[in-house]
């Protein structure tokens, strides 16, 4: 299902990963996230403002997974970490308690990664996250994921991400998160 530009015959379910103008396609991206992650309309409206603000931060960038007829079925975005960003201020005390807050410096943060359920488990998520981190100049990457044994956590572990802190509570998020970090480039299979 995952193919690369110029490769082989095309079929409607084929997906190509490449640069994404996320500001222009934020509604499509959030529709994917709503299906993949289970967001309601109110949460989508809030996330929309947050994504558009994130895209103004230095170094913020996105990759998309698109079908041959142009439908967006997955995306990732992130940016170099900045300790003054809200996400970093929330996780910092948890990392500091583990003596691991140096991970917040010179680190590329994966802010969101989502793949439409119909397209999951075909290597699209792996291709998105390795693609975006391959273009990072930072020596490491960090992210947070719900602290449970999910496909996301399995994927991150297989790419070399390790737990830096667990049971991290974000204001207004009902479930605790794990903060994970990996050296770059991410591990290949
Ligand atoms: C996480 C997500 C983006 C992965 O995308 P994907 O395209 O399905 O992932 P890939 O096919 O590239 O990789 C699948 C990998 O996930 C892991 N995985 C998949 N299902 C798994 C499961 N049930 N348990 C553990 N690991 C699992 C495996 O490591 C697998 O690697 P493999 O190819 O060696 O088997 C996708 O599942 C998703 O959108 N989930 C819902 C939203 C979400 O949780 N986003 C992350 C927020 S932190």
Automatic annotation (TrEMBL):
Pfam assignment, any one: Acetyltransf_7
InterPro entries: Acyl_CoA_acyltransferase, GNAT_dom
CDD domains: NAT_SF
The enzyme's E.C. designation: 2.3.1.-
N-acetyltransferase domain residues: 15-185
Keyword Transferase: yes
MF annotations from Gene Ontology: acyltransferase activity
Keywords: Acyltransferase, Transferase
Coiled-coil portions: none
Highest rank taxon of the organism: Bacteria
Protein name: GNAT family N-acetyltransferase
Organism whose genome encodes this protein: Streptomyces mirabilis
């Amino acid at each position: 299902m995952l193919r690369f530009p110029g490769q082989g015959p095309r079929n409607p379910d084929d997906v190509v990963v490449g640069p994404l103008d996320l500001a222009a396609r934020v509604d499509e991206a959030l529709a994917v996230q709503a299906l993949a992650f289970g967001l309601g309309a109110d949460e989508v409206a809030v996330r929309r403002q947050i994504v558009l603000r994130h895209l103004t931060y230095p170094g913020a960038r996105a990759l998309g997974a698109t079908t041959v007829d142009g439908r967006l079925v997955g995306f990732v975005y992130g940016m170099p970490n900045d300790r003054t960003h809200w996400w970093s201020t929330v996780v910092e005390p948890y990392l500091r308690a583990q003596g691991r807050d140096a991970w917040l410096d010179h680190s590329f943060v994966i802010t969101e990664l989502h793949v439409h359920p119909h397209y999951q488990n075909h290597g699209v998520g792996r291709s998105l996250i390795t693609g975006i981190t391959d273009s990072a100049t930072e020596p490491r990457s960090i992210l947070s994921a719900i602290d449970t044994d999910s496909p996301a956590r399995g994927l991150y572990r297989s790419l070399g991400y390790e737990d830096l802190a667990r049971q991290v509570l974000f204001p207004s998020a009902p479930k605790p998160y794990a903060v994970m970090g990996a050296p770059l480039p991410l591990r290949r299979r």
